[in-house]
């Protein structure tokens, strides 16, 4: 569909809530759902039915079309991506898709990494992390794969609502705290090992897919996924520490 026809459908839908125009918009933006699903797919365990999450993403797209307000100055694609991703993540959480044991393992590794890096003042190696956990290095390599699903789009999870403990919604506090979180996250990203930092940059800021990053860095998709998992556990540790300092 050309931009002129698309704009016409938006106009008709806004003015008359025409179902036919809405359906045309859904059809036009459907590829966006697949893009979001592809980006989240690097975190999905093998048993997750991706078709179910694409269907939930379509519901998110429909909601985005129904609620979009062009006068707010936000591009529809940006607004819709957040709705689509949110719908997919809500579906995963509602199914309790991640076993408690995996969450516990992820927390144990995260805590070990944070303690080591606080002590060393630098990124901890796999050998040091494995020794801290009392396991062999090859067991840690397997563990990275097991807990990768616990790091699904984690940077977005540290939202203002989570940071504003105790329901504090004062606008001035919110602005100050959001800026503090951004600064903490920025410093933590800068301190990551080079390859992990590059993966985070390409995934979250350049919005490349797992496959695109693997081709660019000339590494396997499994290796890119492992680098992402390690980076996110380091970042989560820093953000958790920041949150605890506020309590």
Please provide a written account of the structure:
The chain has 247 residues and is mostly helical. The protein has 2 domains: 3-94, Rna Polymerase Sigma Factor, Chain: A, CATH 1.10.1740.10; 100-246, Up-down Bundle (Butyryl-CoA Dehydrogenase, subunit A, domain 3). Helices cover 76% and strands 0% of the residues. Helix 1 (3-16) packs across helix 2 and helix 3 packs across helix 4. The termini are far apart. The relative contact order is 0.09.
Describe the secondary structure blueprint for this structure.
Layout: H1 3-16, H2 19-40, H3 50-67, H4 76-94, H5 100-120, H6 126-133, H7 137-147, H8 154-157, H9 160-163, H10 171-190, H11 194-205, H12 210-217, H13 221-246
Helix pairs in contact: 1-2, 2-3, 2-4, 3-4, 5-6, 5-13, 6-7, 7-13, 10-13, 11-13, 12-13
